[in-house]
Inverse folding.
C-alpha cells in the first residue's frame, strides 16, 4: 500500500497494557465505524499492515487497539509515536458540497468577481484555519477555507467557486 492511497488516521501515543495494547490518538473529524480489520503503520517510510484483534473507543479521541502480533511491551514500544493510516477507498462517500481535502487537489479555483485564479496544489490543515494553496502560474496564493467564502464545489467539473473579500488574492 502506498501512502498516497491512504489517509492519515492518527498517531500511536502510548501503551495501554503490558500485553501490547496501544492507544492511537485520532486525527479525523469523526469515526463512522471502528470495525477495522487492519491498520497501516508507517515504519521506516513504509506502510506496514497490522491485523487488528480488538479495537474500542477510549475516551473521545483515542482508540484502544490490540494487534495480532504485538503481545508485549517490547513489541508495543517499537510502534510508539508512529503514524497510522487507512485506505482512501474505505472512506464513505460525501454528498453535496462536502468533500475530503485530498479530493480537491487539482481542482480549478474561481472567484465570483475576478474569475479563474488557478489550481489547488495543496491543503494545509495544520493551522487553526485550514488553508487552500493555489498555483496561479506565476505565484502561489493562500485562501482560508471558510464556509462564508465558498459558494460552490462541483466535483464533476472539478471547480471550486469562492466569493472572496476584496484584495485577498493580491496578498
Amino acid at each position: 500500500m502506498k501512502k498516497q492511497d491512504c489517509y492519515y488516521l492518527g498517531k500511536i501515543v502510548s501503551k495501554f497494557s503490558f500485553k501490547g495494547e496501544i492507544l492511537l490518538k485520532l486525527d479525523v473529524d469523526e469515526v463512522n465505524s471502528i470495525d477495522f480489520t487492519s491498520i497501516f503503520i508507517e515504519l521506516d517510510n513504509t506502510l506496514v499492515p497490522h491485523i487488528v484483534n480488538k479495537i474500542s473507543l477510549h475516551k473521545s479521541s483515542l482508540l484502544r487497539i490490540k494487534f495480532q502480533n504485538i503481545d508485549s511491551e517490547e513489541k508495543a514500544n517499537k510502534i510508539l509515536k508512529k503514524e497510522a493510516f487507512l485506505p482512501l477507498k474505505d472512506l464513505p462517500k460525501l454528498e453535496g458540497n462536502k468533500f475530503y481535502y485530498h479530493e480537491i487537489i487539482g481542482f480549478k479555483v474561481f472567484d465570483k468577481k475576478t474569475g479563474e485564479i488557478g489550481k489547488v496544489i495543496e491543503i494545509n490543515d495544520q493551522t487553526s484555519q485550514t488553508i487552500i494553496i493555489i498555483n496561479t502560474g506565476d505565484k502561489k496564493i493562500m485562501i482560508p477555507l471558510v464556509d462564508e467564502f465558498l459558494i460552490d464545489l462541483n466535483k464533476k467539473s472539478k471547480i471550486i467557486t469562492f466569493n472572496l473579500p476584496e484584495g485577498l488574492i493580491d496578498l
Observations:
- The longest helix spans residues 73-77.
- The chain is about 5% helix and 45% strand.
- Helices lie at 73-77.
